[in-house]
Design brief:
With 181 residues, the chain is α+β, with helices and mostly antiparallel strands. It contains 5 helices and 6 strands; from the N terminus they run αββαββαββαα. The chain is elongated.
């Protein structure tokens, strides 16, 4: 017997993991190297993530220290940070770059919550698309009887509900983290 629910679980788990990695890029008032994960700097004509061309440390709770492996990359890293949506002004210390995270305003916190909700909705859409694809595959499976089709669809729906709830719980935690001053 085909186990579509297992396939659904595998694929939906990836959506939740992706959602949590997107949440890590949202600023919450504390410094985290994950803030720079999606920012790419020009590296000898190629776009490279900052965390691959430099080391990133957190010396203080509201500060990031970026030490490029090649001093010549400082200008491109600063340009990439300035072009990003972080809203942080990098400070060039010669061979390192400092990012001092200012406290978040109430409006910025609300904006970040909206962005988190958008990420969550995108993850839920991906989960529902996985459900739709699997239900189409179940209906197209000629080896399954009507009862087996119904059972498989119910199992896939149960997994879908479980992962949609996981997305909502992750959002709730992130929203609390963002709004906590």
């Amino acid at each position: 017997m085909n186990n579509y629910a297992f396939t659904a679980e595998e694929r939906m788990e990836k959506s939740v993991v992706n959602l949590k990695s997107q949440f890590a890029t949202l600023r919450t008032g504390r410094a985290s190297a994950a803030l720079l994960e999606r920012i790419e700097a020009d590296y000898y004509g190629e776009k490279m993530p900052i965390n691959q061309i430099s080391s990133i440390t957190v010396p203080e709770p509201r500060q990031l220290l970026i030490k490029p492996y090649d001093k010549g990359d400082i200008k491109s890293i600063i340009a990439a940070i300035n072009a990003s949506t972080l809203g942080i002004n990098p400070i060039n210390d010669g061979d390192t770059i400092r990012l001092i995270l200012p406290p978040l305003t109430e409006d910025r916190r609300r904006e970040l919550v909206k962005q988190a909700k958008k990420f969550t909705e995108d993850a839920k859409i991906a989960i529902r698309n996985i459900r739709r694809d699997l239900n189409t595959a179940i209906k197209g499976d000629k080896e399954l009887s009507e009862d087996q089709v119904k059972r498989e669809e119910e199992a896939v729906q149960k997994v879908t509900d479980e992962y949609t709830k996981a997305c909502d719980e992750a959002l709730k935690l992130k929203e609390h983290e963002i709004l906590t001053v």
